[in-house]
Amino acid sequence: MPLTQLAGIPADRVTEDAVERKLYSRDLASVPAIMVKPFFRTLPDVVVRPGNAEQVAETIRQAARERIPITPRAAASTSYYNSVPVRGGWVLDVNDLRDGIELDSARQTVRVLPATTWFDLDDALQQKGFAVKSYPSSAVSATVGGWVSMQGHGMGSLKYGGVGEQLVSLQVALPSGELVTVTRESDPPLDWFVAAEGTLGVITQVELTVRPRPAAESHHLFAFDDLNTLGRNVVSLARAEPRPFTIFFADSGYLRLLARAGFHIPLDLPQSHFPVSEKGLLLVSFQGEPSEVNQGKDRLTPVAGCELSSDLALEEWNLRLYHLRAKRAGPSLLAAESWLPIDALHHYLKSVRTLAERSRLLIGTYGLAVAPNMALVMSLYPTDERHTVKYLAALGFTKRLHDLAARYGGRPYGVGLWNSAYLPRLFSRTRLDELKRRKARLDPSGIMNPGKLYQAPFPLWPITFGIGAMMLGAAHIALGRERP
After folding, report:
1. 280, 367 contact by CB (below 8 A)
2. Quick check: 370 and 154 in contact, CB under 8 A?
3. What's the first-to-final CA gap in the chain, in angstroms?
């Protein structure tokens, strides 16, 4: 039966147009064809744009009967190919499942459709006297369902925990096409679908707790001349009570990228890139009741950095959703995003500085304290995707940054396709076996977002990937050295 004859799915919600399908064969990452075409089928056979949860379920039921791979997709705002097909099949574009915001003021919960952006959800809640507890730094484009399907840590996670801790229930279309509501007590439980990256089903509604709109907030920006001191202050502030809403940090390399991109930076840096400066910034923000905010401000007295003006602090806060504006320093930027034990933050920042110095490459690092014991760090470096050889070499340098994080107990943030090479770092053998058991139980035919999360494909086997990436990284240093 042709897909356009599916019951309940209008023909204009299904396309086999080659140009439209091509748009779904990539995400934010620019990956040379030589790394993709010999190994993966990223061009979907069909794109379906369901208008409601039942249309999602009906599409999956048909795919299940014919054992056709399904790749769920909304904003596709990552660079790991989480929402790009690798075995062809159907892409399920859920972007029309948005809004539908139902606030329960008494319970302080909200139900929302999965393709609603975090920015739009928070804006709607603010107008009703409430706010989300946390959101990604890509909140303008990142969707609610997408962040639940990923790791779900960002702004506000330090105070309220990851998005998984805020969930009440999920409505999910399972790989069988059954539409179910899952909670922490259900079987399967809600927790199975958090960070499952769309491999166990398609989220069609999210219910989560919210907070009263903050009555007060205060933002404080500190400058440091020494990365050891910056890192240790992040640790002490992340463990202080009351907990800050968020702590953002950035090193001089990131500030240089911003300056190169044409943005104002609040620090004076040396004219030459090398030797690499140890300067950095720290933004600490409090939100809540006035008494709580004032108590938090009192805790800032021992911070060892130089506090900058409140105007600069507010300016930095207002740019919190635009950290990747540094991309204008391009033409392209590549990055390694990692979880990192917060106690090791200053070691990592110093090691990146040393790597930049030895390689004579501009590397910038910024990040967030997302828990009292954990930071989320992003290290970026400029390259040019228009020059394929240099760009391929630059891709290999990302592994050096991930290896630095691993030296201090870190691991990549997110898996998708490209980070499957790091599976031994991401999961213990016991944990990976448990994830595979869940997959086998819910998706025995393996149709839901196949080729991701559970096993690295041949080109990304850890041994072969490690050798190849090491050679490319060495080539990148040789080709990409910057002059002072």
Report:
1. no
2. yes
3. 64
Give the model's pLDDT for residue 460.
Answer: 86
What phi and psi, each to the nearest 5 degrees, are found at residue 376? -115, 120
Write the DSSP symbol of residue 58: H
| Residue 394, SS3 per DSSP | helix
Give the SS3 label for residue 172: strand
Which helix (H) or strand (E) element contains residue 252? helix 252-260
Q: Are strands 109-112 and 102-104 parallel, antiparallel or unpaired?
A: antiparallel
Task: Identify the pLDDT of residue 459.
Answer: 81
46-48/90-93 β-pairing: parallel
Q: Classify burial at 269, counting beta carbons within 10 Å of its beta carbon; exposed 0-12, middle 13-18, buried 19 or more.
A: middle
366, 249 Cβ separation under 8 angstroms: yes
Residues 6+ apart with CB under 8 A from 318: none
Per-residue model confidence as pLDDT tens digits over 364-398:
999 999 999 999 999 999 988 888 878 877 888 89
| Residue matched to tokens 């448990």 | 434
Backbone phi, psi, residue 448, to 5°? -90, 110
Name the residue among 317, 479, 252, 244 with its Cα closest to residue 383: 479
- Spatial neighbors of 467 by CB under 8 A, at least 6 apart, are none
CA distance 268 to 274: 15
pLDDT tens-digit map of 155-196: 999 999 999 999 999 999 999 999 999 999 999 999 999 999
Residue 374, beta-bridge partner list: 341, 371
Q: Which residue has the higher pLDDT, 480 or 135?
A: 135
Q: Give CA–CA dist 347/377, Å, rounded.
A: 13
Please state the pTM of the whole predicted model: 0.94
Task: Please check whether residue 246 is in contact with residue 285, taking contact to mean a CB–CB distance below 8 angstroms.
Answer: yes
Rounded to an integer, the average pLDDT of 103-124 is 98
What's the mean per-residue pLDDT of the chain? 92
- Pairwise CA distance, residues 104 & 113, whole Å: 15
Query: Which uninterrupted H or E stretch holds 383?
Result: strand 374-383
φ, ψ for residue 462 (rounded to 5)? -50, -40
Bond prior to 275 in cis (omega within 30° of 0): yes
- Amino acid code (one letter) for 208: L
Beta-ladder partners of 334: 381
Query: Alpha helices, DSSP H only, in 89-226?
Result: 118-126, 144-149, 157-160, 163-166
Report the pLDDT value the prediction gives residue 303, as an integer from 0 to 100. 86
* Of the candidates 480, 483, 465, the residue with the CA atom closest to the CA atom of residue 390: 480
